Amino acid sequence: MTAVIRVEGRRRSVLRRAWDYLASFDGLAKTAMWTLAVLFTAALLGRLFGLGGSPTAIVGPRLAPPSLAYPAGTDSLGRSLLPRLLEGVMTTLLLSAVAVLLTAVIATLCGIIAGYRGGRTGGLIMRVGDILYAFPAIVLAILVAAVVGPGYIAALCSIVLVTVPLMTRMVGQATRLVAQRDFITSAVISGVSTPVIMTRHVLRNISGTIAVQGTYALSVAILVEGGLSFLGYGVQLPGSSLGLLVQEGTLYMVKAPWLILLPGLILVLAILAINLIGDSLRDRFEPREARSLE
Amino acid sequence: MRLLHWLPGRLLSAIIVLLGASILIFAAVRSLPGDFAQIVLGPLSNEEQREQLRQSFGFDRSLPEQYLLWLGNAARGDFGLSLASQQPVLDELASRLPVTALLAGMAMLVTIAIGIPLGVYAGTHASTGRGSAAARIVSTIGISFPEFVLGCLVVFLFSRFDLGLSVGAFTSPTTDFGRGVVSLLLPALVLSVFCVAATARTTRDAVIGVLVEPHIAASVARGEPKGFIIRHHVLRNALIPVLTLTATITAYLLGGAVIVERVFNVPGIGSYLVLALDRRDYTVIQAGVLLATAVFVIASLLIDVLTGLVDPRVSVAKKGRGA
């Protein structure tokens, strides 16, 4: 009985600490977090409880402007736009998040090895990163789409290939700075094994860099997914993503501007929110002194 | 001349990156599952056509031989025939290159003309509150606008309302340069928004970094006028990271041009690449991707040399790192 209470007590304190941590951000970053939370919750409600109706059902007249019955208007087939928007938000956020998670794992692993061990393996990792970095993002995505074929996998692979090189480079640089510090040297002298140093000492000290770069990678991911879907090689119909909805919207731009304005606005809001959170994290982990000439 | 110490190494690494990229492009297209000739020509092709295609691609040789053949031809400017139009890829790329070059050049001009002054203003007013917050929000909105959203928005506004400029009417700069520039004005502005914001952010951070250095405090103590300090001490030091950013911006302009050309229906290299993807025209895709990568590698090499000439510290650092 006592054991149960203790476990519960500890869990609440973790939640409380997480809440306190989030509350310590500045107003702009907090607004950004709320925006993302609202977008995600709305999309989740749409997925779980069918908020807004079915995304594929034809329910009304074609190209009807936003009204009480169709809060976001209807598209060229008479489907209500709201559920498609919610599905698009879900797809875009989920796809980007999964891809960035993959990126974070790959980049952290490669970056720590390259930055801490260096040597031939490290040099090779950095070279491969340089080569991938030389491809402009959308051009690389086009190459991937040409090989893999259009779809989720193409978008996922493109995002990972576009975001991995920069993040690996940044993690490598941060690792190199940490590796020079005295506590690493004393750990080595004390006979701590390399894997333990890498995970317990290096990884913990570069977690800030990983958070900052991961956040920026997420905004790049949404851009790449949007761009590729806009060109017609990302998410395919009958699926829905914000980039795909913008692309569909271009066809009826003059008659039904809401079809392009609404997904475009949500896309910009999501990327803006993520960038603001990234800036806030960067200020926190890489503080800089500011001085003016006044 | 310190430059000579690290330039050979930097050249070598640029060549390695280009070779690596070319291997990647070659391997990517060759790794298509199934019979390449079947994929390219479609299920309705006969065996004779497929055999001809295999021969023109040198499929009877080993993979390394095929790669060297392709690379050797590409280095001489021979990218083969377009699978869709049967025209030499080089000719088609060359006829579209001036459009994309002009588009990217105009966007770069806008980036420098607006991004740097904006960043200097934000940086010199960083600790005075309101102006700095406004600059931060404006530049963050700038990097958050995907150019396909912004482009569509501009096309919508300019086609719905009469705002003086028309979208969709394209004049080639090779036939009439002046009208070509005017017709590319909106695409170039859309393309430049991200780069302006990114440049402003980098300039701002660099200016703040220079302002806290002791020699600025010394200048202020000597009573030098503010404009003089900014021009002579702050700008010269702060522009080095901005110069480095130019390489990234070049890559961004090349990628962004693909989307912007698609949105505005501009017949440049970018829309050619998307067309090639639509037609599964693999020779064009290989050539286009290789070209874009080569432009980026060469641009960043030039910018590194330029930075080395401007900033003596760079050459020392490069030499020390053994790059």
Automatic annotation (TrEMBL), chain A:
GO cellular component terms listed in the entry, alphabetical order: plasma membrane
Biological process according to GO: transmembrane transport
UniProt domain ABC transmembrane type-1: residue ranges: 89-278
Entry-linked PROSITE patterns: ABC_TM1
CDD domains: TM_PBP2 (cd06261)
Gene3D superfamilies xrefs: MetI-like
Membrane topology value: Multi-pass membrane protein
Keyword Ribosomal protein annotated: no
Residue stretches spanning the membrane: 21-45, 93-116, 137-163, 215-236, 256-278
Keyword Nucleus part of the UniProt annotation: no
Keywords: Cell membrane, Membrane, Transmembrane, Transmembrane helix, Transport
InterPro entries per record: BP-dependent_transpt_permease, MetI-like, MetI-like_sf
Subcellular location(s) per record: Cell membrane
A UniProt-annotated Pfam family: BPD_transp_1
Annotated family: Belongs to the binding-protein-dependent transport system permease family.
Designated name of the protein: Peptide ABC transporter permease
The organism's taxonomic lineage, starting at the top: Bacteria, Bacillati, Actinomycetota, Actinomycetes, Micrococcales
UniProtKB/TrEMBL annotation, chain B:
Superkingdom classification of source: Bacteria
Bilayer topology: Multi-pass membrane protein
UniProt keyword annotations, A-Z: Cell membrane, Membrane, Transmembrane, Transmembrane helix, Transport
Chief location: membrane
Gene3D superfamilies xrefs: MetI-like (1.10.3720.10)
Annotated compartments: Cell membrane
GO cellular component, one term: plasma membrane
GO molecular function, one term: dipeptide transmembrane transporter activity
InterPro entries linked to this entry: BPD_transp_1_N, MetI-like, MetI-like_sf
Pfam families membership: BPD_transp_1 (PF00528), BPD_transp_1_N (PF19300)
Family: Belongs to the binding-protein-dependent transport system permease family.
Protein name from the UniProt record: Peptide ABC transporter
Native source species: Agromyces mediolanus (Corynebacterium mediolanum)
